[in-house]
Design brief:
mainly beta, Pectate Lyase C-like, 2 domains, 20-stranded parallel beta sheet, twelve-stranded mixed beta sheet, 7 helices, about 10% helix, elongated, Right handed beta helix domain-containing protein, Pectin_lyase_fold/virulence, signal, PbH1
Length: about 525
């Protein structure tokens, strides 16, 4: 039996639709100053801080080369033929470790024995060719290292400090856990050839807005691999890739975060085989205004994105990020995104919606603010095929905890479908499109931005699978008190609707074709 909880909603609640069209947006990467005090901006200071220009010098058109690189050296820096050293540390030698990282020679491996390491500040690395390796990442909830795990504890570290704070090409971190970082657990910025493998980031307490914002956080970088990692309890995103070119995110687990996995303003990413469960929102792909990289060419394959119904605990005061506005129960949303393919994934039991395609104008309607990314506010070319929708989704928007002020789009959606219930529509469809793109388009067109929804497995008895909200018109009618008119602007389609039963976009994505 559907758990619809909106029977008391009125047309006044639908005023939130107007707010949803003018939410203020702020880059989730709003602090460019690492804790070392060194100002880092992508493509400029990274050269002097890291010792090498971050430009990999490769053919930007050779997408598969970057993705198939698989954690090897794809950039211009290499340790081949250079002196390489290994430094060994054990618990109790934290001060010596901190002293050594300040004077590291390039191509150094820092080997950490099993056990617990306690730090009062970030481990700051500003050198190329560094590997930080432990004895194992341990298991969820393990805040102390064991016989076969290495746990770096930052519970009593300085306020606003990261756990690992890195600028350096050909950096790898593996087989360890970062516990209770004050800010980001592992932040790598303006770097080329970044590998995060078998790492766990975690905060001890769930649902705390004072937890650090990000678990794994590579940003403004190139050639990034994140695999076999775990991320828990981040107050923004457990696993994040932002303003980056060429990334593989595979076989990771993200749970109990506000956002499980985020791909933001990124070109050429392959998101494969991950589990995103029990987050506010499972997996998101979006661009934000003001960032110079226009995200494109993202393949999302064979991921499990189910049961993402955790109440949103992002701090509104500390971060006006897009994620703080997401209603609980959101499986996946794409915003200001293009050339995105979703295949082989499983969605289900996401209380608000399984998949949403939104315009950047839904969070920032001033088109001029999108100029830095080439006016990249519009979503287009989204291919959703051969996925499984288990059901149990779309029947309790934002878990019924509606807030027009904090999460206006969720409140608007709930109010709209409260009226829809009276018209026989008992839940939000599996695919929601806000209907805003392209800007000023002819509303007679059913699918002008080429959203393809084909060959998906749907629950038995599904009648409509796709909805066009026509959000702008619905908002106008709602402000006039015309709730039936607002609902009447929405259009609901079966999965077999011809205009959506298309076969993708051209040229097709080749990202990840060499990775099985």
């Amino acid at each position: 039996m559907p758990r619809l909880q909106w029977s008391r909603a009125t047309s006044a609640t639908l005023l939130a639709l107007v707010a949803a069209l003018s939410l203020s947006a702020c880059s989730d990467d709003d602090d460019n100053t690492p804790d070392s005090g060194v100002k880092v901006d992508a493509g400029t200071d990274a050269g002097s801080d890291a010792g090498t220009n971050t430009d990999a010098g490769s053919d930007a058109g050779s997408v598969d080369t970057g993705i198939a690189w698989d954690g090897g050296s794809a950039g211009t820096f290499s340790c081949e033929g250079k002196t390489q050293a290994t430094l060994n540390f054990a618990p109790g030698q934290e001060e010596a470790l901190q002293d050594q990282v300040n004077t590291l020679a390039e191509c150094t491996t820092i080997q950490l024995a099993a056990g617990t390491y306690t730090f009062d500040n970030a481990i700051t690395i500003r050198q190329n060719g560094i590997t930080l390796a432990g004895a194992g990442k341990g298991t969820k909830g393990e805040g102390t290292g064991g016989a076969s795990s290495t746990v770096l504890v930052f519970t009593n570290a300085a306020a606003n400090s990261n756990g690992l704070d890195v600028v350096g090409n050909r950096f790898e971190v593996r087989d360890l856990a970062v516990w209770n970082a004050k800010k980001d657990a592992i932040r790598v910025e303006s770097s080329v050839d970044v590998v995060m493998r078998r790492v766990r980031t975690e905060w001890a307490e769930a649902d705390k807005e004072s937890n650090g914002k990000y678990g794994l956080y590579p940003v403004k970088s190139k050639y990034v691999l994140i695999e076999d990692c775990e991320a828990y309890n981040a107050a923004d995103a457990g696993i994040y890739v932002g303003q980056t070119e060429y990334a593989v995110v595979r076989n990771n687990v993200a749970k109990q975060n506000v956002a499980g996995i985020e791909i933001e303003n990124t070109k050429y990413a392959y998101v494969l085989g991950n589990t995103a469960q029990d987050n506010t929102t499972g997996l998101v792909v979006f661009d934000l205004p003001g960032n110079p990289i226009k995200g494109t060419d993202i393949r999302v394959k064979n991921n499990t994105i189910t049961g993402n119904n955790r109440n949103n605990f992002a701090s509104v005061a500390a971060s006006s990020s897009t994620v703080s506005q997401v209603p609980a129960g959101t499986g996946t949303f794409m915003l200001a995104s293009r050339r995105v393919e979703l295949t082989g994934n499983t969605w289900g039991n996401n209380n608000t919606v399984d998949v949403a395609v939104l315009s950047g104008l839904a969070i920032e309607d001033d088109v001029t603010l999108w100029e830095a990314g080439g006016f990249n506010f519009a979503s287009a070319d989204v291919y959703i095929h051969h996925n499984t929708f288990q059901g149990g989704s779309g029947d309790s928007v934002d878990n019924g905890n509606l807030s027009p002020q904090l999460r206006p789009l969720g409140a608007a959606l709930a109010a709209l479908y409260a009226y829809g219930e009276t018209q026989g529509t008992l839940g939000v469809e599996h695919l929601v499109w806000d209907g805003l793109d392209p800007y000023g388009h002819d509303r007679a067109l059913v699918n002008p931005i080429n959203i393809c929804f084909a060959n998906n497995t749907l629950p038995s008895g599904t009648t409509t699978a796709i909805v066009d909200l026509d959000l702008q018109a619905a908002a106008t009618l709602a402000t006039q008190g015309n709730l039936p008119g607002a609902w009447g602007r929405t259009r609901h389609y079966a999965a077999t609707k011809a205009e959506f039963a298309c076969s993708g976009f051209s040229p097709a994505l080749t990202i990840g074709d060499f990775i099985q």
